[in-house]
Design a protein that fits this description.
single chain, YmcC-like fold, 13-stranded antiparallel beta sheet, globular
Length: 215
């Protein structure tokens, strides 16, 4: 399938002249055809949904971590589950409040539904690392740039590509820098299936290895 981007979605971003020429060149009957919008609504996450991820250093290929998540409860305000030997807590939009490695305060808005190409939003939040006594802040701008096929260990998915650009601050060490993250959210998996992360020190890729969703 051709990658859909903000530059090539008919009916939303192309000029009227281009659409008219395209219709007569490729299919005269297409003049009156409507292209369905590419949009992802809030997924319905269910108790028992399960995802397993593997994280590797992008420079060396060495596996750094695994994350095994299973949903145990869904309420009107949040989603709870098990993550490795700990737990996770998400908002209903699948944004982290707490995981086995970090606790978050503020607006951790990695995802904002509905997702559609061209959508942008800003967010910032504070974090406290559970594995070592560090605290810090992230400030990012998110931009949904494409809808495309992505290959991961769990298979092939059609996913929204979301780019995040911004800054990080480690309030414990005083270090700070630029942050570049890319997520691919696949509606059929009810989850992000791939993440590429680079903060100038850490540079890794995390991808879905296996998953099981409740009907």
């Amino acid at each position: 399938m051709k990658t859909v981007t903000a530059e090539n979605v008919p009916g939303r971003y192309a000029s009227p002249a281009f659409l008219l020429i395209s219709c007569f060149v490729f299919s005269p009957g297409a003049l009156f055809a409507q292209v369905p919008p590419v949009k992802a609504e809030l997924p319905i996450v269910k108790v028992g949904d399960h995802w397993k991820y593997e994280q590797n250093d992008r420079r060396t290929g060495v596996k750094e971590a695994e994350f095994d998540r299973t949903v145990t409860a869904v309420t009107a305000t949040q989603i709870d589950g098990k993550e490795n030997e700990g737990k996770f807590v998400w908002t209903r939009e699948l944004n982290t409040i707490e995981s086995s490695t970090v606790a978050v305060s503020g607006e951790s808005k990695t995802l904002s539904f509905p997702l559609e190409i061209g959508k942008k939003w800003d967010y910032k939040y504070n974090y406290a690392n559970k594995l070592n006594p560090t605290q810090g802040r992230w400030q990012l701008e998110a931009n949904v740039v494409a809808f495309e096929k992505v290959h991961v260990l769990a298979g092939e998915f059609e996913a929204f590509k979301i780019e995040y650009r911004g800054f990080w601050n480690n309030d414990t060490t005083g270090k700070h820098g630029r942050l570049n993250v890319t997520n691919w959210f696949a509606p059929s998996a009810r989850s992000v299936v791939k993440t590429e992360y680079d903060d100038g020190y850490n540079n890794w890729v995390r991808q879905l290895v296996e998953y099981q969703l409740q009907p």
